[in-house]
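User: My collaborator sent over this chain with a note saying "see what the structure looks like." That's all I know about it. Can you take a look?
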Amino acid sequence: ALQGWRKLSPVRSRTPVAYPIVALIITELLHRQQLLMGLWILLAHGAYLRPSECMNLRRKNLVPPHQGVSRAWCILVAASEAQLETKTGDSDVGVIWDAPYLSWFTEAIKFLHQGEKEGKIWDFTYLELTNMVQVVVKSLGVSFVPYQCRHSGPSWDRVKGYRTLQEIQKRGRWKASRSVNRYEKAGKLLAEYMDLPANLRTRAEQAVQELPGLVRERLKRHS
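Assistant: Without extra context I'll predict from the sequence alone. Here is the result:
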């Protein structure tokens, strides 16, 4: 299975992508009526999820906040009752949804949580997601594959000063600090973003502003 993920995640996938570009890609997915695919990317980006971790999520793995215990949603990664493990052999790893620039996304998490709790969240395969994303990025003139969420989330948090390297390591479930260095590349992210055409950066930054409202609109249509 791991080899299958790797075939869909070329070496280029280790290059982080700035959040405005991610937002632009998601916006285009929503315009193509691909709400769940857009939510997949946002969830994986904000929680530093590996493709298999995100694809294997069931509704009950999105744990709502509870008064007196937690004020934030928690994503339960690699649930032991499903006999799942992370790449490093861990199970039942909780990721708190506290990305400061994605606080509005809790409405989408509530939406994904609705329904039969044993059911899978996504109605598509990773191959289908990858193929649709390639159609979108080709139309936009950018490079991106879904696996880059695993690299882009940490790098964006670092370049914006949202988290320390130690906090990024814990959130990403990396055992060694050198593993974080492979994934968190804030300088690379910034350099590549600034190399993009100015008009593309402008469109991407507009997408950041428009995305919360666009997601809410699509959620209402599906509720």
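A starting point for your reply to your collaborator: Residues 63 and 78 are 13 Å apart (CA to CA).
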